[in-house]
TrEMBL record:
E.C. code: 2.8.2.-
GO biological process, one term: hexose biosynthetic process
Family membership: Belongs to the sulfotransferase 1 family.
Species in which this protein is naturally found: Ciconia maguari
InterPro entries: CS_Sulfotransferase (IPR052654), P-loop_NTPase (IPR027417), Sulfotransferase_dom (IPR000863)
Protein name listed in UniProt: Sulfotransferase
Pfam families linked to this entry: Sulfotransfer_1
Tree of life domain: Eukaryota
Keywords of the record: Membrane, Transferase, Transmembrane, Transmembrane helix
GO molecular function: N-acetylgalactosamine 4-sulfate 6-O-sulfotransferase activity
Transmembrane portions of the chain: 78-97
Domain Sulfotransferase: 253-517
């Protein structure tokens, strides 16, 4: 018997098949059937016996179902494409909105890169003036050569806008209005028999009072708590008793190592503290003048409670105890012996970081800060001594990038960040003065690399508006790396320190260099030659002015 398998999916007995709505009994012909005609149906012959359904293999070709599958596949791909476009749109919108929030623009870099070679021997404390050329010939991308003039135009625009204008020094009364509490704590006169600026302050607490209970440095940083635990134990032993009152010796630094970051300040600090007459704050870099007194712990974390000046003075208590021991010794009392111990402070942000001013001081019409860090330091310590360590600003910037960049570090990435920073700096210079751009908090936070830190002469000139030139010692890292003994002697002479024995001098000058470049950063090698050339052009007018101010052509950094 003959049946159409298309209409009878399950094989049925004869009598049931006759009831099929498509087929009409045993005489069905799929060539004549209007439903089956042309659809290439496959007939199946079987007898009239009832058959088990599972024992029969159904065979057929169904083009309609294959077309349905095709259309379903197309619909699936279309839905996936639409979904992908939606996700991509959302990601781009998030990126653009985030950039707008931080005042950033998506600026394509016009740079293209050539090949580069690695040089693991390059370190922060290397004598850059004696370096050989680390670069090997690189193949330049032709499109880069075409785009380079556009970047030169950016640098030329910046150079044309440079003006070194002397800032107006604020009055002392204006400073008092800004920081009344600071002026109420720090006196205007210090002990005459101490080389270091110190004074006695009445202590009104009792024996159960913790003098460091509210110190912000101890509260916010676990690594400093050990120091304050020790200070608590010895605090009462160092109080001075006079007429039923308790007094504690307070001190400020005699000298400041004010900058710059990645210029060898850590190495200078480590060597100086080996001198028997030199002490430092309990923390190498308190950053109090530039950040902590404004409540800045990390810029990305926003503002916290402001650190009062008492918290800063607590950092010098260890040194103050030793100075007090000298002042209260029998020899000092009988002969009027002078204390020669001096205290230093080595926050490398002191010279340049004035980013917080815009949040606390009234803005000026020109966008320049009305008060700078040096104004307040000079108000309290007009005789303070300042030490500045500098290096080739081009190499400093690369070292700074390697140290602070957290991920995806490469010479290409550095190149891109330099390009973006130059464009942002140019945009600022088109509308504002050089000083306004250098101290512009928004710009400084937006630039991917800290170009402004290498504009040494801008900061130096502002410090020279309040301090005399003979109060500032400017050194070069390149000279320090090649002849440590010579530079340390310059520092000793500048600070008027006593002579050393040969053993003491050898300990200071022959110690290994501190804070050298990390091995994983050295493996990246030097920056691209094109990046170096661009930065040379950018920093050249500033280096020229610096050499003129210091009467020393070594600060042109021509040989590096």
């Amino acid at each position: 018997m003959r049946y159409c398998i298309n209409c009878c999916i399950h094989l049925l007995p004869n009598d049931l098949h006759r009831q099929c709505f498509r087929c009409r009994g045993p005489n069905h012909n799929n060539q004549k059937c209007p439903v089956c005609k042309g659809e290439n149906k496959i007939p199946l012959y079987t007898d009239s016996k009832q058959m088990k359904l599972l024992a029969v293999l159904e065979v057929r070709t169904d083009h309609s179902e294959s077309w349905n599958g095709f259309f379903c596949l197309r619909k699936g791909k279309l839905c996936s494409l639409i979904f992908g476009l939606i996700i991509m749109t959302l990601v781009m919108a998030s990126y653009i909105l985030t950039g707008a929030k931080h005042g950033l623009l998506l600026i394509p870099s016009p740079f293209h890169y050539g090949a580069f070679t690695s040089n693991p021997s390059l370190m922060d404390n290397e004598s850059l003036s004696d370096m050989k050329d680390h670069y090997q010939p690189s193949k330049m991308n032709i499109s880069y050569v075409k785009d380079y003039p556009s970047i030169k135009l950016i640098i030329d625009t910046i150079t044309s806008k440079i003006e070194f204008i002397t800032r107006q020094r604020p009055d002392l009364e204006e400073l008092r209005k800004q920081e009344p509490h600071m002026f109420s704590v720090i006196p205007n006169k210090f002990l005459p028999n101490s080389k270091n600026p110190c004074w006695y302050e009445e202590y009104r607490g009792n024996t159960t009072t913790d003098p460091y209970a509210t110190n912000s440095y101890a509260l916010y940083s676990k690594r400093f708590r050990t120091i304050f635990d020790y200070l608590r134990k010895v605090f009462w032993n160092h109080l001075y008793h006079y007429k039923d009152k308790h007094y504690r010796l307070r001190c400020l630094p005699h000298f400041y190592i004010i900058g710059q970051p990645k210029c060898g300040t850590t190495d200078l600090y480590d060597r100086l503290r080996l001198h028997p007459d030199v002490r430092f704050s309990a923390i190498k870099e308190p950053h109090w003048w530039t950040r902590k007194r404004f409540g800045i712990i990390r810029l990305r974390d926003g503002f916290h409670d402001r650190y009062p000046v008492e918290d800063y003075l607590d950092l010098f208590d260890l040194a103050a105890h030793q100075i007090q021991g000298v002042l209260q010794s029998e020899a000092a009392k009988e002969r009027g012996k002078m204390n020669n111990i001096i205290i230093g402070e080595a926050s490398a942000s002191t010279m340049w970081d004035n980013n917080a001013w815009i949040f606390f001081y009234d803005n000026s019409t020109e966008g320049e800060p009305p008060f700078l860090i040096q104004d307040f330091i000079h108000a309290f310590q007009p005789n303070a001594k300042l030490i500045i360590m500098l290096r080739d600003p081009v190499e400093r910037l690369y070292s700074d990038y390697l140290y602070f960049a957290s991920a995806n570090k490469s010479v290409e990435d550095f190149h891109e960040k330099v390009a973006e920073s130059l464009q942002l700096f140019e945009n600022c210079m088109l509308d504002y003065s050089l000083r306004a751009c250098v101290y512009n908090n928004t710009l400084n936070n937006a630039m991917p690399v800290r170009l402004q830190v290498g504009l040494y002469v801008v900061y130096l000139l502002d410090w020279l508006t309040v301090f005399d030139k003979d109060q500032i010692l400017v050194l070069r890292l390149e000279d320090h790396a090649s002849n440590v003994k010579y530079t340390m002697h310059m520092v000793f002479q500048f600070l008027d320190l006593g002579p050393l024995s040969e053993k003491q001098e050898a300990l200071i000058t022959k110690s290994p260099a501190s804070n050298t470049r990390r091995p994983e950063d050295r493996s990246l090698g030097p920056m691209l030659p094109t990046t170096k050339a661009i930065l040379r052009d950018f920093y050249r007018p500033f280096n020229t002015k610096l050499a003129q101010v210091l009467f020393d052509d070594a600060f042109l950094w021509k040989r590096t």
